[in-house]
Amino acid sequence: MDAAEQSLIGRIWAAIEAKDWKTTISALEDGVSVTPESLYVFELYADTLLDELQNMEAGWLLLRKFVRLAIEKDSKDWLLAAMNQLFDSSRDYSRFPSGERLSMGKELSWHILTLCQQEDAHSRAEYYEAMAHFFHEFGNNDLAVDLVQMAVTLLEGLSLKEEVQQPLLAQLLKRLAEYKCHKAVRAALL
Length: 190
Known about the structure:
- It is a single chain.
- The chain has a single domain, classed as Serine Threonine Protein Phosphatase 5, Tetratricopeptide repeat (Alpha Horseshoe).
- 81% of the residues lie in helices and 0% in strands.
- The chain has helices spanning 3-17, 21-34, 39-52, 56-73, 76-87, 98-116, 121-137, 141-156, 162-189.
- The chain is globular.
- This is Tetratricopeptide repeat protein.
- It comes from Rhizobium laguerreae.
């Protein structure tokens, strides 16, 4: 990050902390136009629109742009960030067009699957976890469970420091339990 980008991010955070949303949005718009390669600025912009301001219309437009850029860049970080922005379990997407979200999720998944073939085991585990959110949300829970299980297997096979590996495994195992529980409840209801 160069000095200009650091200064811009400092300005953005000062406005966020002051809850000066007009200045925040103006600085974020500047950030996106001046530093279009900054994933951090795009994520911060999306988070501000969706979480702080609850501006779903502007947030949705930004997410569309975010997904397009992620696909154009064909970058692990951008693809995962776009997938997480679209399928973050802590966010309410009820006011977003589900068909369009599904379509964007499918397109991101296709690019992720293509790209992950060239990646190391740790990166593939991250990809599988991100795609599992998508498949779980849109009803393909069996595939979501399979993806999380593959991610667990990949992480267990890595020689990572325990303080790095254990939190990652704990997160995956928690998600696996949630998905399996969902699967069992659904089977009981049918």
